[in-house]
Amino acid sequence: MSPTAHPVLDLPFDATPDPDEFVRAAMEWHFNPETGSPYWLRRARSLDFDPRNDIKTHADLALFPNVVNELRDVPVRDLVPRGYGERPDIVGTFESGGTTGAPKRVVCLRDWMDRMVAWSNANLDAHGFPRGAQWLGVTPSGPHVVGRIFEESAATHGSLGFFIDLDPRWAKKLIASGRGDLADDYAEHLVDQAAFVLRTQDIGVMTITPPLLERLARRDDLVDLVNRKVGAIRWGGTQMDAESRQLYRTEIFPGIPLYGHYGSTMILGIAGQRYGLGDDDPCIFDTFSPYITFSVIDPASGRPVPYGERGQVVMNHVSKGLLLPNNLERDLATRIKGPDGRVGDSVADIAPVARFDDEVVIEGVY
Predict the structure, then answer these.
(1) Taking the CB of residue 278, how many other CB atoms lie within 10 A of it?
(2) C-alpha separations of 8 from 4, 81, 112, 268 in Å
(3) Which of 89, 228, 231, 299 could form a disulfide linkage to 204, CB 3.0–4.6 angstroms apart?
(4) Over the stretch 206-258, which tens digit does the pLDDT of each residue have?
(5) ∠300-104-4 over CA atoms, to 5°?
């Protein structure tokens, strides 16, 4: 740990810091010339406030502009805080999906990846996922962070992982160009590859997107394989309604834990499905607060919508390795009160906006 880093920035993953103390420590770290990143030290000159003096609470993060579009062109080394020294332990550089314009890039430090995965693994434990299992993932690899999270989870919660690479950009490109039949063929090709692994290997945990899980469930032989072999299913993406969740849990894959997550490369992580939801409840996602926090706003006014109402999701990432506040995401959600003692909103009923940054949003295999 750098001698100038506040200890609150390096707490164990299961110790929840005071959110306001945490934010103040993060502002000192990211905007101190000795420890801040070249990007934020430059960007601070154009802010109309002083983050080290004016950001005192988590709510004050709303003072920051949304800088995410600047990350399309920023040299990624400029995003690494100087406090990590000359040879920082970088897990990787990751990109947004590129759905609306050129991709945006962020850098992930090892300490953050370890913290994020430890938190995620604890959620898997709560939902009944078997430890030490072999994992099968039908999920994007680089440059998307979700693939690296799968690898880390398979190695730490499980024992090893089998990876079926999913290219969402290609599927979206096919759909956008009117070649939806080829996108269907590609999706079936992915399920075929998963089938080879399921037939020949001992798979205890399967990670997959909702559209591909739906395709898999159309094949009776694969449903039988999953029910015989798989101990838990983790789905990732944006949409699975309560009716589908209930159908999977009670009729298609009865007795197999079904756990969802929702995230973004721009927050280098995920929100996890709330434990203890009823069969008719919407799938509620709780964040890794105060590191990752959501708010659900009326995009016209910028103000939070009432609980139970729908709005657009704003995401914040504040950690020792990355600062990215006030990122207006391309998703709509229902605003849900977060767990006691946590800052920010929880979300449910995720769905993409129709247009974002003047581009039509296509979900494809997500």
Answers:
(1) 8
(2) 12, 17, 14, 20
(3) 231
(4) 999 999 999 999 999 999 999 999 999 999 976 788 889 999 999 999 999 99
(5) 95
Q: Which residues are CB-contacts of 306 (< 8 A; sequence separation ≥ 6)? A: 335
| Separation CA 90–CA 114 (nearest Å) | 12
In this structure, what are the phi and psi dihedrals at residue 287, rounded to the nearest 5 degrees? -90, 165
Which pTM does this prediction carry? Answer: 0.94
H or E element at residue 354: none
Q: How far is CA 198 from CA 27, 151, 192, 221, 224, in A?
A: 48, 18, 10, 11, 10
Is the peptide bond between 290 and the residue preceding it cis, with omega within 30 degrees of 0? Answer: yes
Q: Tokens for 250? A: 């009670």
Q: Are strands 310-318 and 292-297 parallel, antiparallel or unpaired?
A: antiparallel
